[in-house]
Design brief:
single chain; about 190 residues; mainly beta; Immunoglobulin-like; four-stranded antiparallel β-sheet
């Protein structure tokens, strides 16, 4: 996903992206790439510190790589086939999900989940730790995550910018949801 971070204000803003590092590709509409003489100016980081009146472009890709557990569930209902040796499933060759990280395929979640009575539930939880899976929730919970996606909070790392009129959370706070590959977004 292309992320364009535009700082229209008068202060620097360190904006932090959870989930995976971003690959910086441009600043103020100019590509940060090698011209064959100089080194590639792009870098990988999880925080964009943009100067006043500056725009930063970056690519954000979430793969679930090296989590240590299978994000699609550890049952045998899906397969992960890596034919090109990059570590990720290739659906053209029979893998169920194109970008599943195959070394984690079939690995169960490494912790025992608490029971529903022991959780403080919110509307963004699907009731399951697995991508695309919906679990049992109390009545009235889970209505905002019907596809079983993963939510990542993106926020300013300047503490004063995380509130609105002294109410937390607020200010420069956002979120992105990663949904399973078969979800149709209309």
């Amino acid at each position: 996903m292309l992320v364009r971070n535009v700082n229209a204000g008068h202060d620097s803003h360190p904006f932090h992206y959870h989930g995976e590092n971003l690959q910086f590709i441009g600043r103020d509409g100019r590509a940060l790439s090698s011209d064959g003489i100089t080194a590639n100016l792009g870098r990988s980081d999880n925080t964009i510190n943009s100067a006043p009146k500056q725009a930063i472009d970056a690519i954000w890709v979430w793969t679930g790589k090296e989590l240590g557990w299978d994000i699609y569930g550890h049952d045998t209902a899906h397969v992960c086939i890596d034919t090109d040796g990059d570590g990720f499933g290739d659906s053209a060759h029979g893998s169920t999900y194109e970008h599943e990280y195959c070394p984690d395929h079939g690995k169960p979640l490494p912790v025992t989940l608490p029971g529903v009575g022991e959780l403080t539930l919110g509307p963004w939880y699907s009731g399951s730790p697995f991508m695309g899976d919906i679990g049992d929730l109390p009545p009235g919970e889970g209505g905002l995550n019907p596809w079983g996606g993963y939510f990542f909070v993106w926020h300013s790392h300047a503490e004063k910018e995380l509130t609105t009129f002294d109410i937390f959370p607020g200010g420069t706070l956002s979120a992105v949801v990663v949904v399973p590959p078969d979800v149709i977004i209309e």
